[in-house]
Specification:
It contains 20 helices and 48 strands. It is an alpha+beta fold. The strands form eleven sheets. The protein has a six-stranded mixed sheet with strand order 16-17-18-19-22-23. The protein has a six-stranded antiparallel sheet with strand order 40-39-42-37-38-41, with helices on one face. The longest helix is centred in the N-terminal third of the chain and has 20 residues. It is globular and about 100 Å long.
Length: about 950
């Protein structure tokens, strides 16, 4: 009985799904609303659904026959990735190019744009012939036997757009190599043509039915030689054999290798003899595998001695759209506009004259790319992994990047030792033919299910091409650095002279059975407090150091294993006594250091402790302004300064010193027997005003009597672009595709860190992009000529650099569920940034809510986001935009002067029915707040953002 895939292929040929794709795109149909057979049929058009890329996006796999890519084609791919995808471009182990993050409505445009530059994604998935590739430098090498590029294109013409050859029992891989040095890669393809010279004539050996995947097997040698003019006919005949006799009953038995196991090489020869109009020349001798892997990174002199190929290292095959576009431009500037993709997940620029080599390499370096890769970049490979792939059980590229960095720090040397990581048994990263192969698995531990890897050693080249042998099964991902270091160092110490890594481990493992790693071998991570050298054993570092009370951020993970349990301090060695006087245990006295705060949780409520002299003070943990953790603030004698907006509180009484009228509660404390106790019910101050109470209520939601302090996430994001908005305003666009900085509501800010001679300096900047943007985080800021942070960022940070930040933070934001009223957004200068985040969110949500946007600036040149706002006003009837200039030029016809209360009130029909967001200089907002209140606007509908202490609190 045919398997289900054969059933739905027979019901509708996958080519015929295209009208449905256009229908789904026009309707923006969610992935979950599309039937699975249609999602699978879309792979015939090179469009792959990605359920894990929420809320359901698509990837396109672009066919790059023979690895030939023009500059114009490369730029179009880059632009598609930037404009419609996640901004990343991946090169695969078949020299394809993949773009992730496409939405359903963009798919027809993607296909059209690719066709416009002569590219196609068609038939790059499912039961088709995949990308036909050659040696990446085919036609360029002086020692090449034959240029196989045209043969690659001729073979592709046999099946591309063919309904007959787009319905195979399973996928099929084809490659050609025109040199006499054949890497291990060619022994795992379904059909490989490998050049050899016989009596002065160039012929091809044929390898058949190699696979990696669930049941790996090296290819059979077909004992014939094929002339170049016979390659296309032999290929067609093999395809016909596969179609005619390959099984379609069980998917796991449908690859070509199972047919060969059934009929044998003799059956293949018999078929070819009957099917081909010409005899094939017999040949018993097999192709000799290379003694090393292909060298594809560096400078390579071409057949024309005046021209060079620049092989670029692309770590794990992933680059940014800007890097690909930069290489395209570079190839035009210093070469003839031609590039080559490689089966080693790399790329090369060809035809560079000798005199331009240094200039080309310099331009590549400006893109963050190099021809001088270290052994870790040269010898590692990773598939897509669970970040995007539907079937991967582990992440790969992220884990491999981390593994590389950890091995670098250990000064380990990979002298030609290759490490390949696949996220599942499919082996897209070819882990079976690597010296160290890693196959993703889930491992069960006492602490739960974790990501892990089965480890294989001895694959690849060891005299002949070999499949790796199992070494360890179910190794936790965190233990990989130790394992790799151990097996590499053992090889260096014990191998015989001239023996390769794979040969050594094959000899050792030949009769051994792979060991399964169990709980007893799992090593819990060790965390070192860098402030006091305290060691903590656990999956995560503690909230604070039990030894010195240092913050969690002081802990660094040790990679060398755990310390003895006897040496680790147990947090539960001695339980504090239970008291009957209302005091409850809060912390060890030794946990609280002088001059620092400590957050503690008692009965589910957070408090902040401070040591002032020989006294311990206790107040509410959360700042009433926007919920920042007061324990993280700077302690100045008896005063703690909020780390977000510099509000000041007396740690003894809880009174707010600046601004006034925003007190927090303080609590009695007691030190007894080395323990700190607090009396939660004995609050010596209560929340005083409705504004502060509103903030607290919204931070805590419903339930607890006191809110927990907001803990922002810290991350380092790469700068994708720097946009000059006005002469003194720039937008720093950061790559947040992985969601490292969570951003849920428009209007929030992030804190940016820069280094200085006096230590780290942090400043707050509102996020101007919308929360729904899964790719980028925009920080728009105005240059402060005497400011330390903006001056540093403007002068030193550009695309490719990284910025350390915390976010998203703050209580000044639009909540569409809680704030349904018409909006009035009023801002001045760079105070426009939260307003733009709000407006962009509403546009993306297709909201029809009335918005009045009033903006004040000095001159026309100082109007930030002018074109975007004017276009929004033109496109959307619900959006009204007005600018007032305090220093207008003669040509200005708009409003004059600073925005004031009368201007705001006159801009809306029913002022008391609206919700107001104000951002700008403090005196500007204070004046507007008073005038709005005087006009009977409810105080709870007036929101202000401020980054410094003021006389009145923010009202949220």
């Amino acid at each position: 009985m045919p398997n289900p895939i054969e059933v739905w292929k027979s019901e509708k040929h996958p080519f015929d799904v295209w009208p449905d794709v256009e229908k789904y795109a026009a309707a923006q149909t969610p992935m979950k609303a599309i039937d699975t057979p249609d999602l699978e049929r879309m792979k015939w058009h090179g469009l792959f659904y990605r359920k894990r890329d929420e809320p359901g996006r698509y990837m396109t796999r672009i066919r790059v026959t023979a690895g030939e890519l023009s500059a114009d084609q490369a730029r179009e791919i880059a632009f598609i990735a930037y404009e419609l995808g996640h901004g990343i471009v991946d090169i695969t182990t078949r020299a394809n190019v993949q773009v992730q993050g496409l939405e359903i409505e963009h798919l027809p445009a993607v296909v059209s744009r690719l066709e416009h530059v002569g590219l196609s994604a068609k038939q790059t998935g499912h039961d088709n012939i995949r990308n036909v590739f050659a040696h990446p430098f085919s036609g360029l090498q002086h020692d090449e036997l034959i240029d196989t590029r045209q043969l690659c294109h001729d073979v592709t013409e046999v099946f591309l757009d063919s309904r007959e050859y787009s319905d195979l029992p399973r996928k099929l891989n084809i490659c050609l190599n025109g040199t006499d040095s054949h890497s291990a890669h060619f022994w795992t393809q379904d059909l490989s043509f490998l050049a050899t010279e016989v009596d002065g004539e160039v012929l091809f050996h044929v390898l058949l039915a190699g696979t990696q995947g669930q049941n790996p097997r090296l290819a059979w040698h077909l004992p014939v030689l094929v002339r170049p003019d016979q390659v296309v006919d032999v290929t067609r005949s093999i395809l016909d054999l596969f179609k005619a006799k390959g099984t379609r009953e069980k998917r796991n038995k449908s690859r070509l290798r199972f047919l060969i196991e059934d009929i044998g090489i003799g059956g293949v020869l018999e078929w070819l003899e009957q099917d081909l109009p010409f005899p094939l020349q017999p040949c018993v001798g097999e192709p000799i595998p290379a003694s090393s892997h292909d060298e594809l990174v560096g400078w390579f002199r071409q057949t024309d001695a005046k021209l060079w190929t620049m092989g670029i290292s692309i770590p794990l095959g992933r680059m940014t759209w800007r890097q690909l576009e930069g290489l395209a431009l570079l190839s035009k500037k210093w070469g003839n506009g031609q590039l080559r993709t490689t089966h080693e997940q790399g790329i090369a620029v060809i035809n560079i004259p000798t005199g331009f080599k240094n200039a080309a390499a310099t331009d590549a370096a400006a893109l963050g790319l190099t021809v001088q890769a270290d052994p870790f970049e040269l010898n590692t490979m990773a598939c897509t992994g669970s970040q995007f792939c539907n079937i991967a059980v582990t992440e790969t590229k992220g884990h491999m990047f981390q593994l590389i960095e950890k091995l670098r720090k250990r000064a380990l040397k990979l002298h030609g030792i290759r490490i390949h990581m696949s996220g599942c048994p499919s082996s897209c990263a070819q882990h079976f033919t690597a010296d160290i192969g890693l196959k993703g698995v889930r491992v069960r531990r006492l602490i739960g299910t974790r990501e892990g890897f089965d480890v294989f050693l001895g694959g690849g080249l060891a005299g002949q091409v070999h499949m790796g042998l199992p070494y360890k099964l179910g190794v936790d991902v965190d233990q990989l650095p130790n394992l790799v270091e151990d097996v590499v160092n053992e090889f260096y110490l014990k191998h015989r002279s001239g023996q390769t890594f794979s040969a050594y481990w094959r000899e050792k493992l030949q009769a051994a059975e792979a060991a399964k790693v169990g709980d007893e071998e799992y090593k819990v991570p060790v965390w070192l407090c860098e402030a006091c050298d305290f060691h903590h054993n656990g999956e995560d570092p503690p909230v604070f150091c039990p030894s010195c009370a240092g913050l969690r951020r002081n802990f660094a993970r040790l990679e060398d294993g755990t310390s003895d349990a006897a040496e680790a301090v147990s947090e539960g060695d001695s339980l504090p006594p239970v008291r009957d006087d209302g005091f409850l245990f809060a912390a060890k006295n030794s946990d609280l250091t002088s001059g620092a705060g400590l957050t503690v949780e008692v009965q589910g409520i957070e408090y902040a402790l401070f040591r002032v002299g020989d006294k311990v003070r206790c107040i509410d943990s959360a700042c009433p302004h926007e919920g920042a953790s007061l324990a993280d603030g700077e302690l100045r004698d008896d005063v703690v300064v909020c780390p977000w907006h510099s509000w000041e509180f007396d740690t003894c009484t809880g009174c707010s010193l600046e601004p006034k009228g925003n007190d927090v509660s303080s609590y009695e404390t007691l030190i007894d027997g080395g323990n700190i106790f607090i009396k939660p019910q004995a609050a010596k101050a209560m929340p005083v005003n409705s504004a502060a109470t509103s903030v607290l209520d919204r931070i805590k939601g419903s339930g607890s009597a006191r809110p927990k302090a907001v803990k922002p996430v810290e991350a380092v994001l790469q700068v994708v672009d720097v946009i000059q908005e006005t002469p003194d305003v720039k937008t720093f666009r950061l790559n947040n595709a992985d969601g490292a900085i969570p951003f849920d509501h428009p209007g929030k800010f992030a804190k940016v860190c820069i280094p200085s001679d006096d230590g780290d300096v942090w400043r707050s900047f509102t996020i101007s992009s919308r929360p729904g943007d899964k790719h980028y985080l925009d920080l728009t800021m105005k240059l402060n000529p005497v400011g330390q942070v903006t001056r540093y960022l403007f002068d030193n940070v550009g695309p490719g650099d990284s910025i350390r930040l915390k976010g998203a933070q703050g209580g000044f934001f639009l909540d569409t569920q809680q704030h349904p009223e018409p909006l009035v957004l009023v801002s001045a200068g760079s105070g426009i940034t939260p307003m733009m985040s709000i407006v962009r969110s509403l546009v993306a949500a297709e909201s029809q809510r009335p918005v009045t946007f009033l903006y004040g600036a000095r001159t026309e040149a100082d109007i930030i986001f002018r074109k975007e706002c004017e276009q929004l006003a033109q496109d959307h009837s619900w959006f009204k935009y007005r600018v007032s200039l305090s220093m207008p030029g003669e040509s200005w016809t708009g409003s004059h002067g600073r925005i004031d209360g009368p201007q705001v009130l006159s801009a809306v029909n029913e002022p008391t029915a609206c919700r107001y967001f104000l951002c700008g200089p403090n005196e500007f907002m204070e004046s507007l707040v008073e005038e709005l209140k005087h006009a009977n606007v409810p105080a709870e509908r007036i929101h202000t953002e401020q980054f410094h202490a003021v006389k009145t609190p923010a009202t949220i």
